[in-house]
Amino acid sequence: FCAKDENRPHLLLLERVFEPDAQLVVVNHASTMSFPARTVGLDAIADVRVRKFAQTQENIYSFHLRRLTACAKQFTCGGPVVMSEKHSQSARAGSGQYDWSFAKAAPRLAAQFTITIQVMQLLASAEPASVLGWVQGLSDPKCSARQVARAAPGGGLLVPALRHLTAYESDA
User: Fold this and answer.
1) Looking at residue 162, what is its pLDDT?
2) What is the CA radius of gyration of the chain?
3) Are strands 74-85 and 91-102 parallel, antiparallel or unpaired?
4) Could you report the per-residue pLDDT of 66-82, keeping only the tens digit for each?
5) Nearest C-alpha neighbor of 63 from the set 7, 147, 159
6) For residues 46-63, b (16+ Cβ closer than 10 Å) or e, as one string?
7) Could you say which DSSP state residue 141 is in?
8) What are the residue ranges of helices labelled H in 1-157?
9) If you average pLDDT over residues 13-20, what whole number do you get?
10) Edge-to-edge strands, sheet with 91-102
11) In a 10 Å sphere around its CB, with 0-12 CB exposed, 13-18 middle and 19+ buried, how is residue 74 labelled?
12) What DSSP state is assigned to residue 101?
């Protein structure tokens, strides 16, 4: 998440997470963003997830609602993501699921990372301040679904993006 959220495409960071021939798979149920369905290799993943993404998006905050356990072969968690578009300054709020599969041999790096985008809302240009203020107030990228929902701006603005996260309420 740090490479994308903080626009750090250098491979040193990604080499600590992904196998050299790792696969990024994107299952996209949202029509407001597009990504290649399959990307293979560290440099290609850095290009798709960081370099190209940062050309159009900024103020990116990703959260994962479950903590990774040591020596896991697979890891699944849900999480919201918030960002703003560089050109229009409109905010986006979404949610989905992250599925990691790790190599069997040490150092057990990710062999495949699947991102399922369930919802990605494009919010009115007047909304970025409240949405970005909300995510800045969350204490940790590894927070609970309850913390995320409790801190969300009122008025039902983010109901579509947060609805998917109720499946993770008992996790964190």
Assistant:
1) 84
2) 16
3) antiparallel
4) 777 777 899 998 888 88
5) 147
6) bebbbeebbeebebbbbb
7) S
8) 2-5, 11-15, 42-46, 53-56, 128-137, 145-151
9) 86
10) 38-40, 18-28, 110-122, 91-102, 74-85, 57-62
11) exposed
12) E
